[in-house]
Amino acid sequence: MDLKIFEQMESEVRGYVRSFPVIFAKARGSELFDEAGRSYIDFFSGAGTLNYGHNNPILQERMVEYLASDGVVHGLDMATSAKKHFLQTLDRLVLKPRGLDYKVQFTGPTGTNAVEAALKLARQVKGRQNVISFTHGFHGVSGGSLAVTSNQKFRKAAGVALGNTSFMPFDGYFGPDVDTMAWLERMLDDPSSGLDHPAAVIVETVQGEGGVNVASLRWLRELERLCRRHDMLLIVDDIQVGCGRTRDFFSFEAAGISPDIVTLSKSLSGSGLPMSLVLFRRELDVWEPGAHSGTFRGNNLAFVTAAQALESYWADDVLSKEVEAKEALVRDWLENLAHSCRHAGLTVRGRGLIQGLVTPVGDDLANQIARRAFQEGLVVETSGARDEVLKILPALTIPREQLTRGLEIIERCTNEVLASLGRRPQVLKVAGGN
């Protein structure tokens, strides 16, 4: 497959094409098809953007219908019928049933735009500059978002100093026996700790890019308690693990917490169209008109598919139950695989349909498995500080048969890679969750 035009004309900054070096031509559900007609099972889902699969027919039909009716596509922040319907649907199906009285701010089209707005708002409300973020956190690569992103690779590319952020250890950073929330509380309580009083704390309940690190529900509740006690706003970045990825619509629901600010993007539109927003408590709306702007904060086509996704998948708990069942299948399969290959030091972690097969740091094992899996027709990425985690991120709507076939590929490729490295697995049939 000829990729010369991309090598010749596209910047060296391109990334995913290096992991998946084919030209994709079509996509449907949980399958991608390259120009040669070969199909690939998708365990990547546009880095969490396609929770309902590629070209979901329900959303696609609504999109085409809207375009054919000459509906407004670009509207800045003007009032449109599409935006009205989305706001009404969001309030009726998501906010009101959860007792959330949030205002809605439409930002630029990407997740980092939402994070930038959330940070700016928190600093305006509290009149303070410092923000607490966490080790292995990822929140975007534009200025303010990058300042609260921990990964050195992204931070080095900034070219300027990144400040006004204090990084604290995420849950489990020092192992299971160290309470990192007690660490944070001590820092906040000590007037000589050197920690400037933060305006806010920003956190992912599950760190996707950081290596599928899962915050315990107790830890999240303690974090909310500390924010209330120390007059800090709690910002939950739900860009990758929201919209049902962890079973509930919001990933923080299981913890029973109520963030002050929530950022959403990726699968919000449902169809892969760019769309982001910030939700925040009504009393925090201190914005002056036009104080935070953006040409593409009015993607009306995304409003249309977002509303349809909510109506089709969040009017009841059918999808949530499907995610719960598929989580059990994936988790059981991976844990059986890790057990059969325990000589290789594999472990498993995750929540919902974001699961990670964790490999020892330093041997490039996860990348080798991902490359071998792609050769076998599976698109799956790695994450973590040293790409040590094979991140399983299928569409929430993936058929069970396709999900099982993808897991079989991971199992087979893991065993093949380990054998090639001289780490032959024990003779033990992986149950695969059956």
UniProtKB/TrEMBL annotation:
This is Diaminobutyrate--2-oxoglutarate transaminase. Pathway: Amine and polyamine biosynthesis; ectoine biosynthesis; L-ectoine from L-aspartate 4-semialdehyde: step 1/3. Pfam families: Aminotran_3 (PF00202). Its cofactor is pyridoxal 5'-phosphate. Belongs to the class-III pyridoxal-phosphate-dependent aminotransferase family. Its EC number is 2.6.1.76. The keyword Signal does not apply. Keywords: Aminotransferase, Pyridoxal phosphate, Transferase. It comes from the Bacteria. It is an enzyme of class 2 (transferase). It comes from Castellaniella hirudinis. GO terms for molecular function: diaminobutyrate-2-oxoglutarate transaminase activity.
